[in-house]
Amino acid sequence: MAVGIFDLLHAGHLHYVEQAKSLGDELVVVIAHDETVRKQKHEPVTGQDLRKRMVEGLKPVDVAIVGNPPGIPIFEVLKTVEPDIIALGYDQKHSIDSIRKGLEKHGFGDVEVTRVEGLSDDLDGTRKIIARILDLWPSSEGGPYEED
Known about the structure:
With 148 residues, the chain is α/β, with parallel strands linked by helices. 38% of the residues lie in helices and 13% in strands.
């Protein structure tokens, strides 16, 4: 199982799910609920249904589901997915130790938790891509592809 926001799908996301898929036979990806994204990070650029659809289209992904809204613990999703392994992205802030403790507390002590390596590319994150676009699109001009 892999979890994430997957806003503005990019090469870093593909790399993440490729690595997660290599850890087992089937990959279920849990897409963060829009309200969770708003609460934990930012206003999503794309909605949860579109993000789910995009992730479903990635070759390594067998199943994609939208996660629970805030207030319903991730452990509820585990009852449905029943993963053997949870793959965390290189940049996800979650502590492996705290996740393991939570898994044990909720009866999922046999689930392995691992962190996959990042993509060695300077544009491997949504915020990095947005920053790059803004750098290329000076506010005083019409944009990087302005007609003469």
